[in-house]
Design brief:
The chain has about 120 residues and is mostly helical. Helices cover about 85% and strands about 0% of the residues.
Length: about 120
């Protein structure tokens, strides 16, 4: 278990650094009020997690430790949106359309409310 945690931590460390550098570079290169850096990091993260899970499904191509390092660690540090998108794809594949709709809607709306409330709480204290 310790080895897995270290793999996740190392991947997350690298993914977080990659996210910061990529988003910053994109945002500074393409000046726009639209958050292009975050948008493209999320899109690339979704592509990568799909690629990594697809490769891991091919027997012998990727072991469990490398999969965890790349998906949970790197992609998790790079963007949590990639995990969200992958989980939704799984729900769609399983035909769980109600769960898909609920998970997507609730994640977006409750997430926005939570950010608002967290921000609001700093003004109250």
């Amino acid at each position: 278990m310790v080895r897995i945690l270290l793999l996740v931590g190392a991947g997350g460390f690298l993914g977080s650094i990659a996210r910061y550098l990529a988003a910053r570079y994109i945002q500074q290169t393409f000046l726009s009020p639209f958050p292009l850096g975050t948008f493209w990091v999320n899109v690339v993260g979704c592509f990568l997690i799909g690629l990594f899970y697809g490769l891991s499904e091919r027997s012998g191509f990727m072991n469990d430790e490398l999969r965890i390092f790349l998906t949970v660690g790197f992609c998790g540090g790079f963007t949590t949106f990639s995990t969200f998108a992958n989980e939704n794809l799984g729900l769609l594949r399983d035909g769980a359309f109600l769960y898909f709709a609920a998970y997507t809607s609730l994640s977006v709306f409750v997430g926005l409310i939570a950010v608002y409330l967290g921000n609001l709480s700093t003004k109250i204290i």
